[in-house]
Specification:
It is a single chain. By secondary structure, the protein is an alpha+beta fold. Among the domains are: about 100 residues, Phosphorylase Kinase, domain 1 (2-Layer Sandwich); about 180 residues, Transferase(Phosphotransferase) domain 1 (Transferase(Phosphotransferase), domain 1). The protein is about 40% helix and about 10% strand. It contains 15 helices and 10 strands. The protein has a 5-stranded antiparallel sheet. A 3-stranded antiparallel sheet has the order 6-8-9. Its EC number is 2.7.11.1. Pfam families: Pkinase. This is non-specific serine/threonine protein kinase. It is an enzyme of class 2 (transferase). Belongs to the protein kinase superfamily.
């Protein structure tokens, strides 16, 4: 498998080798050995040097780490367990089991796991290219068809493998698809994934991120299967093409509830994309899950026939070059400021002047803002929208009721003829005189 090689140190590999080292019988913590994958009780910092934070979510943070023995660079997902959620550790074990049992070149590679007090460390392959979401944000443009088709082909290969093993990802989106420096595509974040048994081929809990959730996941009393991932893949295709998922201007929960009743999403500017791409997205976004092709069937779609890694690799190289140039520029500015005896500008001071969200812009300024778009401002807006959109929904014991149909507000009683507004009254001399009399009576009440 491409990517970072597994650490060869015995201390690291032993933590992920199962109970063969004899420690499993003396764990001292109930439930640690229940997983098919072994959680070491050693201090992970004895084997790993923790570097910069490279990602953060609602329930975990991801750090760049280096193994002290092999010097290999990996990623550590550190999850702080919540005592108020007794099933949280069981969900972590499920994620680890999926990474171990369903290994595939298009899935993130698992290397080691640790359990220390209320923290769980999952050591995984490091993907230096970041997520798809971060890539198009750094490019400050939508992704091209050539970039999108390769990503979709690799995602489908990973999903086809997962679905063949009875696993539903349930949270496919741009933020959960990672890229290596070489352009390899990896499905990640299996925290809400589900393993289907032979006797249970469908799930019924509401899980996922609202804008990417399939209609059948939201329906009350309905069940769903792996076809829910196909819908999320189609939404991710639109996300890459337009830098945000459909309906992202709506409140996330409102968008989730309205998904079953709204028409299937499509491109804002269909003419800008090839007919093959439009047909691919149309197939993935069928409201009826039975009409959606499987991941294996979509791999044969003509849109993916000439997919190549070269365009995506070029985009990643461009982003890395920009990052290096920006780093050198900041270092030069800091050096010049130190030489002049001035404090260098802080990044937060620059972000403070970022354009506000369009909803907070006064109405009289919105037309001017649309008339003179700014690439950096649009990128900042997309980042703010997706930060709100990417908050996943955890499994719920009871399903939410479906959103009731919108009911029109009752009609207002008809106003008296001619008295609807002062402007209409002024057009009639008789009515205008009557209104002036009423106004004068209110201002100067009669003496008694």
């Amino acid at each position: 498998m491409a990517g970072v090689a597994p650490p060869s140190s015995s201390s690291a590999s032993g933590s992920a080798s199962g109970s063969s080292n004899g420690q499993a019988g003396s764990m001292g913590e109930a439930g640690l050995s229940a997983s098919r994958y072994y959680f070491s009780l050693e201090d992970p910092k004895e084997n790993w040097e923790v570097g910069d934070k490279v990602g953060a979510g609602s329930f975990a943070s991801v750090y760049k780490v280096r193994h002290k023995g092999t010097k290999e660079i990996c990623a550590a997902k550190i999850i702080r367990l919540n005592n108020k959620m007794p099933n949280e550790f069981a969900m972590v074990k499920d994620e680890v089991d999926i990474l171990r049992d369903a290994a595939h070149p298009n899935m993130i590679t698992l290397y080691a796991t640790y359990k220390r007090t209320n923290k769980v460390w999952i050591i995984m392959e490091y993907c230096g290219g970041g997520s798809i979401q971060s890539l198009y944000q750094k490019l400050r443009r939508p992704m091209t068809e050539d970039e999108i088709k390769f990503i979709l082909r690799e995602m489908l290969a990973g999903l086809a493998h997962m679905h063949a093993h009875g696993i539903i990802h349930r949270d496919i989106k741009g933020g959960n698809v990672l890229l290596t420096h070489k352009g390899e595509v990896k499905l990640a974040d299996f925290g809400v994934s589900a393993q289907l048994s032979h006797s249970q081929q469908r799930k019924s809990t509401i899980v996922g991120t609202p804008y990417w959730m399939a209609p059948e996941v939201v329906y009350e009393g309905a069940t769903y299967d792996a076809k829910a991932d196909i819908w999320s893949l189609g939404i991710t295709a639109l996300e890459m093409a337009e830098m945000e998922p459909p309906n992202s201007k709506m409140d996330p929960k409102m968008a989730m509830y309205m998904t079953p009743s709204m028409p299937a999403p499509t491109f804002r500017k269909p003419a800008a994309w090839s007919s093959a791409f439009r047909d691919f997205v149309r197939l993935t976004l069928q409201k009826n899950p039975a009409r959606r092709p499987s991941a294996a069937a979509l791999l044969a779609h003509p849109f993916l026939a000439d997919a190549s890694i070269a365009p995506l690799r070029a985009a990643i190289t461009l982003v890395r070059a920009r990052a290096k140039d920006s780093k050198r520029a900041r270092a030069a500015a800091a050096k010049a400021a130190a030489k002049a005896g001035k404090a260098p500008a802080q990044p937060h001071a620059i972000r403070r002047h970022a354009p506000p969200h369009p909803q907070h812009v006064p109405r009289r300024h919105r037309v001017a803002a649309k008339a003179s778009p700014n690439a950096a401002g649009q990128a900042n807006h997309q980042a703010a929208v997706l930060a709100q959109a990417n908050r996943p929904i955890q499994p719920m014991r009871h399903r939410m009721p479906a959103m009731p149909a919108m009911v029109a507000s009752p009609a207002r009683p008809a106003p008296m003829p001619g008295l609807a507004s002062p402007r209409r009254a002024a057009q009639s001399p008789r009515l205008g005189a009557h209104m002036r009399f009423l106004r004068a009576s209110n201002e100067n009440p009669p003496l008694r």
